[in-house]
Design goal:
heterodimer; A: mainly alpha; two-stranded antiparallel ribbon; two-stranded antiparallel sheet; 3% strand; B: mainly alpha; 14 helices; 68% helix
């Protein structure tokens, strides 16, 4: 029988990827928020994500809660290791999360909550990138606990991945706004998306080159089967995604740039998966070792198999209800 | 600033702080989501516009409170790992799946349908909007169910063994989920959430009635709240009593501390109404007590013997003074709620429910007391679990992760500053929305692009904004 822990690794990976894409674009909208001119553009951008942001963020809770449920050891090691970036991310998410409601409730403090929305979004994105970089670098473990220092997560490489994630989320955000708006705001975002796309691809290139130097293991995983299949396929797929992003932008397409940006994220995520596998926390904690007992995995799996498709269905429905262009004349609630 | 404290103390303070802030929002949103579903259902059934006005009025308040609940809740799902990673590693196999179920069956449901409930009535029509509203309410109750199962398991662990890695190993999921204290705690907390909202709604109704006793929506919400209070408070007192008896069976030391029983009473224990716990001398100073009543309440029997803290090893004792006080605050407020409910019934029978200004003032005073009671109750049960995280099995001091005091201190200060700032502002906005009139169009309503929400004439009667500053 196939190892339950690998099924769960797949489910957690799916949850994290879903989070990255969904909250990625709405954090991206927050990162781009200062570029909005005037109240009309600001509220259009905000309204484009107001009905869905907390559903998007729930995937982050599933990432944390799911890790606790099925890989408690990984959870117990990652959280202390990434203590500061995670606390800062949480605090940043508080600021941006409340800004959605608060900014409609006050005139005098509206600028404060606008800054909170932007600041919270960019700090959360940056900390997520730093956490990714720190994971790729590897986490020091002794016994069943983290044994590194308080600042291990901070390095040139993790700052690089932090900036990369900010830029990538901004790309997702800009292409989302292209999808959801029309007129001058859409045209402006098309311009930004072009540069953000180029920058994102540049960062992906740099990070990809630097990653094997973080741990020689990564190198061999890409050169040996099954990773080597992706080594061949990945550049081509990435080129195709980039091509459809830029042609979509140039042709003024509504949805194509957003889908292309998502594809870029999916490809990167697969790449990270190949580098990590079979570890869950590089360089030494494997998926199997971190997994909870089979009895826990089974119990959680039963509900997941039933509930996740339902969640996807009603989440899709919620997106469907709020489909189409944002009408700036339509009110908040 | 926080030098001299151990990492464990700081981590405990941090958890107490973040979870105390957090519980306020779910307590409010569990009750309010149900209230909104009832209001919307009544509007659809009766077509009485008062219900729709109330729905829209409380919906905006709900949105702000729910937002605060979401973000303070995300913090909670990571707090187990950051400071209490040993606890996470050991209890993860048992508690993790329950929390995963909470996320999957509750959080997604709430978040998925919240957008439709808040923004979607025109887009999906009344029926689907009602469905979404009901799903949000159902989600909040599901969430309460799972997380209270988790908490109850920490209080009364069952259905597990310890594996060779030192982890709790799940033997029987049914026994784990339905552990001995879970049904009692669930009922007690859900009723508490309903009472909290009844008090808040009653307070807001009372406020508007003081200003204008002819205010239709204010009369309606005040009346609904007072009905709720007189029906639910007696149930809650009953549930609390049952919960206490269950606690006596499984966590006797907690009850001893709540009662202030330092000494055993072989011939029946007195109920100490008030007094000053003296931890050094292990006695209650200046105690005012009623003989035998404690035995009567806890054992339902005159003269039943009750053990005291003298039977518990010192290192297993919870801090008595905190429990002694928090328990009295909770119970005292419970009876105050009962008093308010009874008063309202008397006035209603005389047809003066909307006229008695002192009743309205009392309702305003009691408005926030549900939150106080909820916090006092949680302090009682959580502090009463000490010095264990998993009662009787895993000590708090053995649950801490490899964290250093300065890191915990820094994050604690950050949490305190951010929470008071952010949630202080949110509370201010909520209070201002509660202060805004219910039924009259707001003269200060701005006709900006955001505020022109009115599509149907009904919606235009609803002030969609609070007054500009």
């Amino acid at each position: 029988m196939f190892e339950l822990s690998f099924i769960w690794a797949g489910i957690i990976a799916f949850a994290v990827l879903t989070y990255v894409i969904l909250d990625g674009f709405d954090l991206g909208v927050g990162i781009l928020f200062p570029l909005a001119e005037g109240e009309r553009e600001k509220s259009t951008m905000m309204n484009s994500i107001a009905p869905i942001w907390d559903g998007n963020e729930t995937w982050l809770v599933l990432g944390g809660g799911g890790l606790f449920a099925v890989f408690p050891l990984a959870y117990a090691i990652i959280m202390p290791a990434l203590y500061m970036p995670i606390i800062l991310m949480l605090l940043a998410l508080i600021f941006r999360g409340v800004a959605f409601e608060y900014r409609w409730r006050t005139e005098r403090w509206k600028p404060v909550w606008d800054v909170a929305f932007f600041g919270g979004s960019i700090v959360a994105a940056f900390m997520q990138g730093i956490a990714l970089g720190a994971l790729v670098q590897g986490i020091e473990i002794t016994g069943r606990a983290y044994s590194g220092g308080w600042w291990d997560w901070l390095s040139v490489f993790s700052i690089l991945t932090g900036v990369a994630v900010v830029v990538g989320y901004a790309l997702l955000g800009s292409t989302w706004i292209i999808l959801k708006t029309e007129g001058s705001l859409q045209r402006k975002m098309q311009g930004y998306a072009w540069w953000l796309g180029a920058a994102t691809l540049g960062f992906i290139g740099i990070v990809s080159i630097l990653t094997p130097f973080q741990d020689p293991e990564y190198f061999s995983r890409w050169l040996n089967l099954p990773g080597s299949i992706f080594s061949v396929l990945m550049p081509g797929a990435m080129l195709f995604a980039a091509w459809s992003l830029f042609t979509g932008l140039n042709a003024g397409k509504d949805g194509q740039p957003f889908l292309a940006s998502i594809s870029i994220f999916v490809l990167c995520f697969i790449g990270i998966g190949i580098s990590f596998y079979p570890n869950i926390v590089p360089p030494s904690l494997t998926i199997v070792d971190a997994a909870a007992p089979d009895k826990s995995l089974k119990f959680a799996l039963v509900g997941t198999v039933v509930l996740v498709p339902m969640i996807l269905a009603y989440t899709a429905y919620a997106y469907w209800v709020f489909r189409g262009k944002i009408d700036p004349e339509e009110g908040y609630h | 600033m926080l030098d001299g404290f151990t990492a464990e103390t700081l981590a405990r303070v941090q958890f107490a702080f973040t979870i105390s802030f957090h519980i306020i929002f779910p307590a409010f949103s569990i009750g309010l989501a149900s209230y909104l579903a009832v209001l919307n259902g009544l509007w659809l059934r009766t077509k009485d516009e008062t219900y729709l006005i109330l729905f829209n009025y409380w919906k905006k308040i709900f949105a702000v409170a729910f937002g605060m609940g979401v973000v303070s809740g995300i913090v909670m799902s990571y707090q187990f790992g950051t400071n209490w990673s040993v606890f996470s590693d050991k209890t993860g196999p048992v508690l993790g799946p329950l929390m995963a179920y909470e996320v999957l069956s509750a959080f997604f449901l709430e978040a998925g349908f919240l957008g439709i409930m808040l923004f979607g009535r025109e887009r999906v029509g009344n029926k689907l909007h009602m469905f979404a509203t009901a799903m949000v309410a159902f989600g909040t109750l599901m969430s309460a169910t799972w997380i209270l199962s988790v908490n109850s398991w920490m209080q009364t662990p069952a259905g597990y063994s310890i594996n060779d890695l030192g982890q709790f190993y799940p033997e029987d999921w049914w026994a784990i989920v339905f552990n001995p204290s879970f049904p009692y705690r669930l009922v007690h907390m859900v009723l508490a959430a309903y009472l909290t909202v009844a008090l808040v709604v009653g307070g807001v109704g009372g406020l508007h009635l003081l200003r204008n006793r002819e205010d239709g929506p204010a009369r309606r919400m005040f009346s609904m709240a007072m009905w709720m209070l007189i029906v639910v408070t007696p149930l809650q007192i009953l549930a609390g009593d049952e919960h206490g008896i269950n606690t006596l069976e499984h966590q006797p030391a907690k009850v001893m501390a709540m009662e202030g029983h330092y000494d055993s009473h072989p011939d029946g224990a007195p109920l100490i109404l008030f007094g000053i716990p003296n931890a050094e001398e292990k006695r209650i100073d200046y105690a005012i007590q009623i003989p035998q009543l404690s035995s009567l309440i806890l054992k339902h029997e005159w003269g039943a013997p009750l053990d005291g803290l003298d039977t518990i090893p010192d290192e297993d004792e919870p801090p008595v003074a905190i429990l002694f006080w928090s328990f009295r605050i909770m119970v005292g407020l419970g009876f105050a709620m009962l008093g308010l409910g009874a008063w309202s019934v008397l006035r209603r029978m005389r047809g003066r429910l909307y006229e008695d200004k002192w009743l309205h003032r009392a309702a305003i005073f009691m408005g926030p007391m549900g939150f106080v009671a909820v916090l006092a109750g949680w302090i009682t049960t959580e502090v009463g679990r000490q010095p264990f995280t998993v009662y009787g099995v895993l000590r708090t001091s053995d649950s801490l992760g490899p964290v250093a005091a300065p890191a915990v201190a820094a994050s604690l200060i950050a949490f305190i500053v951010v929470y008071f700032f952010v949630f202080g502002a949110g509370t201010f906005y909520i209070l201002r929305m509660m202060n805004a009139p219910t039924s009259k169009p707001d003269p200060l309503l701005k006709d900006g692009p955001i505020r022109t929400a009115g599509i149907t004439p009904i919606m235009q009667t609803d002030p969609d904004a609070i007054p500009g500053e």
